[in-house]
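Q: Fold this one first, please.
A: Sequence and structure below.
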Amino acid sequence: MPPLSAAAPTRLESPPGGRRPFCAQASRPPALALSLAACLLLSVAAAPRPARAVEPLPAGAIHRGIVAAGPYQIFPENRPGNGVYLDGELLLSLPGQTVLSAAQIAPGGRFMYLVRSNDGKRTLGFRTLPNDVAPRLSEPVKGYQYAVAGFEGQGYKKFFRVTDAAITDLLPASRTADGLTSGEQGILFFHVGTTAGTHPGDAPAGAYGIRLHWLNVGNGVVRHLGRPIYNSVPTLKLAWLDAGRFEYTLSDGTSEILNVTDFK
């Protein structure tokens, strides 16, 4: 996968002008009819073809040509010039390129997309709103992308797996995947699941309930620790100890050693 770059729309150019057809140069009366016929044929052949418009999204919940991508739909499937729709509204279409996949970064039509050009080249890009600051992207390990963004005063940290055909959100239920820590066995990361006072019994007073996750980089599977870890700040210090063991440390210095087999 090449480094991320915004995929710019391709400009459709009309065929370049050139010399006039030979029929325009005909001057002998006996050849006039033949010249006019040839002129008509050449003029039709040289006329530029109009660009095909993006197809409207079909009504109804089920259609063979529609690809679901979270809240978005891609239509028509695997066809140059197709589009990304939200609630029947076209949000993105790039002439001459095929949208393969899309994954939401934030609500309101902000997403990452994967396109394929006519020569087979894959490109990643972002679709955001006017006045948005573009997300920052990093690659913690080949085949995975980490996007950090802020929209309308809200922060987002999204962790994606990117293949030649699809973008997969590794933690779709949360807007923040944090603390990425790479090791021989994969990547550890967490998100804040609960805070004190959110719901009765969710977390002790003055504590955050942190959920820990482990990504197996080889197969793209994310497993989860079956219990929350409580800390007085919304973060954890993570460190790999060897191929299978790691340690987390709380803000008060308390630590615990766990094994990847503890994840389910």
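Q: Good. Now the second chain.
A: Here it is, same layout.
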Amino acid sequence: MEGNAYLGELSAGIIYLLAGARFLLLGIRTGEAPERFLGASFMMFGASGILYSLPDIQFFSAVETPIFFAARVIYLPGCVLVGVFTERVFRPDARWARWFVRGVVALVIAGVGGSVAIGDWEGFSLSNGWFWFEWVGYTLPFGWAATEAFHQYLQAQRRVSIGLCEPSVCNRMLLWSLFGAIQFLSCVVVLGQYAAYERENVFTSTWDLLYSSATLAALIVMWLAFFPPRIYVRWINGASAELESARDR
């Protein structure tokens, strides 16, 4: 990474770890599996982000490849768990959804295994055909999450209009959909990032900025979705009430 971009990756990793810990504790208290899946996913994103930032510190630069590989294999199960969360929350009775998750697992395993077999431990080489198996495997869960959550958001909007759903719950569906969409976009951005790295053996500032911006946006909508400040919740509920009042006039 160029300049101080690694600080953004490190900060994002810490925030994901905090969010993941809160979800895991919630899952333990409630006994609900989806909270534990999401918590474990965020913990993996956090640990991976921290590891990816370490080689920019001189002390760790000599072991860059092993650290990048560790970050890679920690990140990928987190993506799979996003798919598991989507299946359990939005499609619990759909057989195709379970096969979708299994397909994602197969793609990730094939991609990593094939890459390692030909010596690509870091997973940054677009010219390696196995990369694309892995990329599709970790990108699809975010696109699926965005699609399912947006569908639920549209349904929740109708329920809000007849008083069967809290506006803040409806808004959470929209925010989770945005999170998935932004993460999907991040996966597209890394293609340019990795292409530049393959040419120049360095992460360039332009792609770092794009990726960091997407990461920041994802963190903001994630936090607003699950840990919203009271002022934000009041604003969402108040805006909905004003809209309903205007419709009734």
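Q: Anything worth noting on the second one?
A: The chain has eight helices and no strands.
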